[in-house]
Amino acid sequence: MADPQFLLAAAAVLFALGLLGVIVRRNALVMLMSMELMLNGVNLSLVTFASQAGSAEAAVLVFLVFVVAAAEIAIAIPIVLALARRRGTLDAGSWTELKG
Amino acid sequence: MGALTLIVLLPLLGFLLNGLLGSRLGRTFVNVVGCGLPLVAFIVAALAVRDLAAAGYPTVIETVYTWAAFGDRSFEIAFLLDRLSAVMVLIVTGVGTLIHVYSTGYMKGDPGYARYFAYLNLFLFFMLLLVLGRSLLVLFVGWEGVGLASYLLIGFWFSDPEKSAAGKKAFITNRVGDAGFLLGMFLLWQALGTLDMDAINAAFGAGPVPGLSAALVGILLFIGATGKSAQIPLHVWLPDAMAGPTPVSALIHAATMVTAGVYLVARLSGVYLVAPEASAVVATIGVLTAFFAATIAVVQTDIKKVLAYSTVSQLGFMFLALGVGAYGAAVFHLYTHAFFKACLFLGAGSVIHALGGEQDIRRMGGLARRIPVTFATFAVSTAAIAGLPPLAGFFSKDEILWYALASESGGSVLLFGLAAFTALLTAFYMFRLLWRVFMGASRMSHEVEHHVHESPPSMAGVLVVLAVLSAVGGFFSIPHFLEPLLPLPAIVPAMEHFHVPLLVLSVALGLSGLALAAWLYAGDASRAAQLEARFAGLHRLLTGKYYVDELYEAVLGRPLEWLSRRVFLGLGDRRLLDGTLHGLAGLARRAAGGFARIQTGSLQAYLLLGLAGLVLLLTWSLRNG
């Protein structure tokens, strides 16, 4: 079992990288991937805390997060595809219809 | 259902039938319903009065239902029949029915035929509610209702803005009086806990009522009466009300509705008997109104306006009688006035009808031979209003003059002198009217003259009936009939032997009015024209109706308009209300505009802002955690 401190630091790095990716990149697919990265950073911290507390419920929660993430991607990818087909680009900056 | 309820409800049924179905079912239906139901109401009323007479005139009270009850107090819809309301209900239904019949001829061919009869029936319903109601509150409902019907009928030809303005003027002027009426009712309710008029009279008759001044109540209720009965200072609406169809002027603005104020004061005589101050106000206002209206009538040139001012003046006579305690004499004059003034108005309507709408007496003349029935009936009722014996007006006017002089409760030589002079003026302006319209050479244009025709039997017949009633109505002595209910005032002993000289004087006054009119307007009326030129200033003042309308316009109308436009509209409505709302809306719009700038459409920017917010929140919670 690795050092929890290291695991938590890794989780924070994963989350920060994901966030940075979402903020910086404009490609919709890369943004989705970055979001997965954030999600997994959170998952890692969840598992770390679960093993520390010896709680089975937290471990189960991790599987729940996987399922939700899979469902989210299953919906998000077709949306991105539909948008890409309409404009011929994956650039998130090309959809600004709801601008104030 | 009791007889009294039936009397009241029959005209209401007529209103509903004619109002809802009349325009679809045609003229015959409207005629049958419009004239038939008032006639049935008259018959039921006559039967009810016969039963009352057979029972020796008890006070019959018919309670329909309890309107509202609070604790041990309650408002009931109840009708009351005694000698006074018997007289009133017979006048209202009787004259009302006659005028309905007359209207079938006069309004023939009018596009609003069914609407007209519906309104007229509605008027009768409210008027009967007024004269039969036991409680002041029921009377007040009728009081407001006749005001509404009057408004609707004055503005009957509402497409003419002048006519609908006259309707509004009548309605608004009456509201001023109603404010006084309502205050009087509030005081009575607060002090006595009842508005039943028999109970009010009994309470005041039993001695002073604690915490309530009879004089104050009397004056407040009289303010209501001045509105409805067109007394100074609220008399201005009645002459304008002549914009309505002539039968309406006859029924509402001469015979019945405008006498409601007289009825109110007579009905609450118990209050006025113990309030000599209020009675003095009533007498003074009455005699002044009688005098000033008569002077205006002398110079009017519109046939209906002469009669309108004459009505105001005669109502003044009635209030004079009320003010000196001669309630019976006032109701007597009300009763004879209903006949001869209705006859005069309907006669005027017949003249207008014959001349195709002409109302200016300067363009009439010589009609006596052309429309003989109208002339004969008009002449009889003119003589009646002038007080020539043995016609009805002679008896009632003589009673009033007598009590104005000799009553122990307020009679004085001053009141009598002014009233007697007014009686002379009355005879003069009425005979002037008769002369200008029916005598002398014709001043009509050829076209009008060619079309002159006597009115149809439905109109002429009614004129004859009313003329007969104006002639013989005075032989039924109302003061004597009402004496058990409304005792006549005591006579100042020193005056007793003046009764016969006064009779002679009042006949002399009537005859000299006739002589004066005949002399002034003989031939081409050059003497009258000379007189007019000699007193041009006075003539202008009288034709200008003492400029009361102008005075009200300057003192009330214009300041009110200024206040409404500048303060209420400009400052209150536009600045304060609209300003606040527009200010709030503008604030929201500007704030939204600011926030909308954040909404760039760039996902990255949203996330950055969200992150910044998250960081702020976390920092804040760590600091203050």
Quick take:
With 100 residues, chain A is mostly helical. Chain A has helices spanning 4-24, 28-53, 56-87. Chain A contains 3 helices and no strands.
Question: Which labels suit this protein?
Answer:
heterodimer, A: 100 residues, B: 625 residues, mainly alpha, two-stranded antiparallel sheet, 25 helices, 2 strands
Architecture overview:
With 100 residues, chain A is mainly α. Helices cover 79% and strands 0% of the residues of chain A. Chain A contains 3 helices and no strands. Chain A has helices at 4-24, 28-53, 56-87. With 625 residues, chain B is mostly helical. In chain B, 74% of the residues lie in helices and 3% in strands. A two-stranded antiparallel ribbon of chain B has the order 1-2. In chain B, α7 (214-228) runs antiparallel to α10 (260-267), α7 runs parallel beside α12 (276-299) and α14 runs antiparallel to α15. The model of chain B has no long low-confidence stretch (mean pLDDT 90). The interface between A and B is medium-sized, with 14 and 13 residues.
